[in-house]
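step 4 of 6: structure.
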Amino acid sequence: MARPRTPLLSRERIITAALRLVDAEGLDALSTRRLATELSVSGPSLYNHFGTKDELLDAVVDSVMGEVDLSMFTPGAPWPEALRAWARSYRAALAAHPNVVPVLAQGPGRRPNALRLADAVFGCLVESGWPRGQATRIGALMRYFVTGSALASFAAGFPEDAGLYDAADYPHLGEAHRLAEHRGAIDEGAFETGLEALLDGLALRFERTAEGARRAGGDR
Amino acid sequence: MARPRTPLLSRERIITAALRLVDAEGLDALSTRRLATELSVSGPSLYNHFGTKDELLDAVVDSVMGEVDLSMFTPGAPWPEALRAWARSYRAALAAHPNVVPVLAQGPGRRPNALRLADAVFGCLVESGWPRGQATRIGALMRYFVTGSALASFAAGFPEDAGLYDAADYPHLGEAHRLAEHRGAIDEGAFETGLEALLDGLALRFERTAEGARRAGGDR
DNA sequence: GTCTATACGCGGATAGAC
DNA sequence: GTCTATCCGCGTATAGAC
């Protein structure tokens, strides 16, 4: 076969197949040949649609970022509620595709959906009265927490091999081999606990900042 | 050359060279051939000391974990201070080797230093009066935050290309191209702000937990 | 503009000689 | 314990068919 009447491939189809492959078998399984086979096409055909493998990976990552709901960032929305709803939506999108998180955690790069997200968070905080410097820090720290929580399941990181946790070496880890049983609940509980603690701690700071600003007549 | 009188290689020497290579040029630069060249040795010689490349990588990662100070977890130490000091030491160790963080964030695996760390944190929290379930969650959420913050510089994630931040697309990101200028300060500020917020929020919860436990006569 | 065939160099890993 | 030789899969460049 040479040039078919209707194209076999499209960016959409390639991205979808690539994401499915990465979700199912990890980042390493995404090879151009493997992906091409999955699409019933021969290796280098992909290069008609993407310049390099990295460009393809970028598109895959941004398609995941596109699943994050940003509708809570409407003008006038109170920042703690908006941040809470966004963090949950963000985590849900990443947790559905944990294997792409190491790529996405490197920063927004030039990916439009990632930049849109950063813009929305920063905008909400500034409009709520946070000084710009603080808003930058809070955007960063929320990203730290959410990507860290999505990067890998905490509970799954401990091998289930009970013999590993010798009381002489690890006096407090005796039950660690049973963590995997409640994996999802532990990860979600840790995320929710951390999120609420973070928001409480930031609210404390906001009161102080607002008070300081009122007294001194503006911060920067 | 065949078998030398005194071995040219040792696990120590290999690990040190591998870590230097990963730090300087990233995870992708760590190939068995490249590493062998760096050690003035021929490719497959490394397989006399490590079964697979993954085993080598595991050893490299655990050597980084070994740099984390755990001395603050002495019996009787107040948990907020211990957690604060540990988080800083943990972040410092990871920030010195950001390229290995994606590997290490996957969980402790069977790496002894990683397990020792998890054991120390959990033990301190339980001895301080946190219920075991809460202690597990707090260990997880602290790991989320610290690994997330070490995974990549927030500020460096935004391209310096000013033309990228078109006000029509990203109304609040106008100054984002200048983030890289103060990269280190932004990352550290975000980490410290998040850490203090987290500890404040957890302290609030601890008071409630302790009160509840006092009233109900024990939690678990 | 979209596909196939072919080819190059580099990656991890193994086998066997010394 | 280290070498050389070798295998196979990878990303991707190039050439040519339609």
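step 5 of 6: annotate
 - Residues 1-3, 31-33, 43-44, 47, 52-53 of chain B lie near DNA strand C (CB under 10 Å from a C1').
 - Chain B is about 55% helix and 0% strand.
step 6 of 6: archive
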